[in-house]
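thought: fold this chain, then report.
action: predict
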Amino acid sequence: MAFYASRIIQILPYFLKGLLMTIEVSGISLILSTVLGFVLGILRTADSKLITRSIGVYVDVMRGTPFVVQVFIVFFILPSWGLQLEPLPAAILALTAMTAAFICEVVSGGIKAVPKGQWEAAAASGLTRMQQLRLVILPQSMQTILPPLVGQYVLMIKDSSVVSVIGVTELTRVGWQTVVRIPEGLMVFTLVGILYFVICYPLIRLSNYLEHRLSLQTVKL
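observation:
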């Protein structure tokens, strides 16, 4: 056990490199999926049935299929349609597409939670629909959106472990490669779990804090 522990300490920089890759993949996907998710969430509250149903199909497909299947489709199937991607861009694309579907539901739910009277008051003030959203509706809906949104970020970081199946050398893949050389799986993946916890825990605390603040504001109202 002491020998294996010393070996893990020696290759700790390799784990940190995998951790940085996890942060890179998750960080880029987080930004892209947030932008896409907000756009889709806003569009899903539009009056056009064609738009809302089309987005609904996309959301249902992404939420109703395993993420590992989505990763395989992006990496192995899209090349047959002329879109060849390296492992890292494929991982980011798959993570972004999946997470955006969940964020879309969070955003549309938050917007729909705003009382209809707020829309009517904003319209009576002479604001365009975009102005109503930007100045009146979205600021109010963010109280509902933020806690589950941060929680979704935590889930995305953990789901990033799946992209190891297409060769992205992130934290989980580093763990599997280490187990081949150091057959002490419990020790290796305990370290992997600790490193995931290090990057997820601040977001968990932020989510809990936002939920607490929201509950206090609800009680005051």
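thought: worth noting. Residues 2-220 form a domain with the MetI-like fold fold (CATH 1.10.3720.10).
final: tokens above.
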